Amino acid sequence: MYISGQSLIVILFVGLVAGWLAGKVVRGSGFGIIGDIVIGIAGAFVASFLFPKLGIHLGVGMVSEIIYSAIGAIILLLVVRLVRGGGRL
């Protein structure tokens, strides 16, 4: 998978927004704003790689990328909290 410099900047920006959004959606013990943003950036990378491979298409443009990344970040936050919390969401 090749990621250009411009794609990397977009993924980072979208990850910031998605991390904040995921932190608002998934409440609990929390990782704080910085932790949620880092999880959001990781979720953006996961979503930008995984969703096209699975054939999931919600549209085009920045809004669809934010939705993809927010879904990826929410899933990643739930998995991290499940592992960290000893099995509780």
Walkthrough of the structure:
The chain is mostly helical and about 90 residues long. The chain has a domain of about 55 residues. About 75% of the residues lie in helices and about 0% in strands. Helix 1 crosses helix 3 and helix 2 packs across helix 3. The chain is globular and about 35 Å long. It is found in: Cell membrane. Keywords: Cell membrane, Membrane, Transmembrane, Transmembrane helix. InterPro entries: Transgly_assoc.
The averaged pLDDT comes out at 75
Alpha carbon gyration radius? 13 Å
Structural class by sheet pairing and helices: mainly alpha
Please give the number of β-strands: 0
Low-confidence spans: none
Number of helices: 3
Order of H and E elements: HHH
Amount of beta strand: under 5%
Shape: globular
N-to-C terminal Cα separation, in Å? Answer: 33 Å
Helix content: over 70%
Main sheet attributes: strand count, strand direction, barrel closure: none
Keywords: Cell membrane, Membrane, Transmembrane, Transmembrane helix
Protein name: Transglycosylase
Transmembrane segments: 6-23, 30-51, 66-83
Pfam family, one: Transgly_assoc
Write the layout of secondary structure elements.
Layout: H1 5-25, H2 32-54, H3 62-84
Helix pairs in contact: 1-2, 1-3, 2-3
Quickly describe the structure.
The protein has helices at residues 5-25, 32-54, 62-84.
